[in-house]
């Protein structure tokens, strides 16, 4: 396998770990905040069990892209781990791994951290800025 990179992003979210965790497993919620705008999530499918699938059909500048993966760990409300493959990558069979952790901060906030590993090096900047924007969108949704 060629060299890979890891993107790490953290943000304090204005909700409890349970609420923030559940946003990741709710297809309607994911449609609202997953993927940095103007990328649009067209369809979402989530099979909430270890071994279950997660799938995002997204539209980016008129092109359709399929993001798919499989849950490796679901430990509510502390950890989600899943694979991530992108039909738009040079090698669409390459799978990266997303780890999302949720730590309580006080009684009403959560430190949400993402570590997205095994990414193709050419994707680092796109995913780094993309996850920051996605976290901003989720924080905005939770604040309302």
Kindly report how far apart the N and C termini lie: 44 Å
CATH topology: Alpha-D-Glucose-1,6-Bisphosphate, Chain A, domain 4
How would a textbook summarize the main sheet? 7 strands, antiparallel
Question: What CATH architecture label applies?
Answer: 2-Layer Sandwich
The class by helix and strand makeup works out as: alpha+beta
In CATH, what is the class? Alpha Beta
Elements, N to C (H/E): EHHEEEEEEH
Model regions low in confidence, pLDDT < 50 over at least 5 residues:
none
Rounded mean pLDDT is 94
Sheet-strand content, in percent, reads: over 45%
The neighbouring-strand order within the major sheet is: 1-7-6-5-4-3-2
What is the number of independent domains? Answer: 1
Number of helices: 3
Give the % helix: 10-25%
Computed CA radius of gyration, to the nearest angstrom? 14 Å
CATH H-level superfamily: START domain
């Amino acid at each position: 396998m060629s060299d890979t990179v890891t993107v790490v992003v953290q943000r304090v979210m204005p909700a409890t770990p349970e609420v923030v965790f559940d946003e990741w497993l709710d297809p309607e919620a994911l449609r609202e905040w997953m993927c940095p705008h103007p990328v649009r999530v067209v369809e979402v499918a989530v099979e909430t069990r270890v071994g279950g699938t997660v799938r995002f059909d997204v539209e980016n500048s008129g092109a359709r892209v399929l993001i798919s993966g499989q849950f490796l760990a679901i430990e509510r409300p502390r950890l989600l781990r899943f694979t991530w493959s992108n039909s738009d990558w040079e090698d669409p069979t390459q799978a990266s791994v997303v780890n999302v952790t949720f730590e309580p901060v006080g009684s009403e906030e959560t430190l949400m951290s993402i570590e997205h590993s095994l990414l193709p090096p050419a994707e680092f900047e796109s995913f780094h800025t993309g996850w920051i924007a996605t976290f901003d969108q989720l924080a905005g949704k939770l604040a309302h």
